[in-house]
Amino acid sequence: xxxxxxxxxxxxxxxxxxxxxxxxxxxxxxxxxxxxxxxxxxxxxxxxxxxxxxxxxxxxxxxxxxxxxxxxxxxxxxxxxxxxxxxxxxxxxxxxxxxxxxxxxxxxxxxxxxxxxxxxxxxxxxxxxxxxxxxxxxxxxxxxxxxxxxxxxxxxxxxxxxxxxxxxxxxxxxxxxxxxxxxxxxxxxxxxxxxxxxxxxxxxxxxxxxxxxxxxxxxxxxxxxxxxxxxxxxxxxxxxxxxxxxxxxxxxxxxxxxxxxxxxxxxxxxxxxxxxxxxxxxxxxxxxxxxxxxxxxxxxxxxxxxxxxxxxxxxxxxxxxxxxxxxxxxxxxxxxxxxxxxxxxxxxxxxxxxxxxxxxxxxxxxxxxxxxxxxxxxxxxxxxxxxxxxxxxxxxxxxxxxxxxxxxxxxxxxxxxxxxxxxxxxxxxxxxxxxxxxxxxxxxxxxxxxxxxxxxxxxxxxxxxxxxxxxxxxxxxxxxxxxxxxxxxxxxxxx
Length: 495
What we know:
about 500 residues; mainly alpha; 2 strands; EC 1.6.5.-; NADH_UbQ_OxRdtase; ND/Mrp_TM; membrane
């Protein structure tokens, strides 16, 4: 069996074994072993990719092609480049950390972990797919479990949040399916056969009129999952009601499918449409970045603060992709990776604080550093990384994005870039206020004196997420060079 298909097979095997577990301990152990294997496979994939790339200069490596529906020329085609490898590594880290953070889930634990791992299987399948139909199938597999995870294990208005998320993402899927079918039915524009193969479609000169029609549909279809303004409203509601591990996967991994799909499908296969529509979507992404940052300032609930911050930082990814140059695109990929780790960290920390204090209202929290030193220290470090402090992944990502954006010397791009850069100041305001309010100063409630310290599994989950944030910050060059090499074929289509 090929190295990539295992990323789908291992979660399936884990789910099957989980269905036969009889108690909470067995469920935890099986879920942990399955995701540890997945994590080990992702580490192995990085080294295997670097070795293969040294001799193989194709756009994608480890390519396998299996016929699925021959009459429609639908194939199970898989392969990876550096961008895919990075996203797979991110997913494996966040899912493994999510298992540790969910160690004490005792309400239908078997069903919870099964839903969580099915979601991860969809994400892994999406990142390895080269066939548009197969990619769309995995896209749906990744999205569907969110309804159950929020609706069953969530809190607050969980039924409303789950339904809102589902309806908006279903609408996005409908729009996306039209865009994908539009690409498919124009894939024989040069006289070939209709195909869903991304690499084959990239060789076809799709008519400009078709690109102008189907690019915005494809961009919006993926963009809704990537928190594109004004279609982002499902995200804060979903985050606020979701259990901790689900929020981690939701923001840390699932929302990355949006930016990745725009990069891999919309901009690669419809480059003329991308150029013609870029100014319109730049305006939306700039609004999303600034609006998300101001929205975070206005919130009092810790989860809502992080949710709106997530909208702002994912807007940076879309903004960077629309800049269409190597530096900005490199920043977009690193920002996706950095945001995934940091937002998962924040949601894990918020879950730990809420689990002990039973409140997410910052007005009722204060002085927690004194009673929760480990959680408090990680909270401060995560906050500083999130606002782009040098030495962390956020700084590397944002510098690449801003430098790449400033390479455009026209007034429209310069003004857009200045507005986006201003979000750094807004981010600093809500991050420093949040840290100062809940961690520093006198203890807000004397009942908090007896709060339990961080457990071994909570510490393990936090360290798993924190280590790559620091490594990317202090050693960004290897990652940046690996990503840039894979961006060349995509940028050539836009020049």
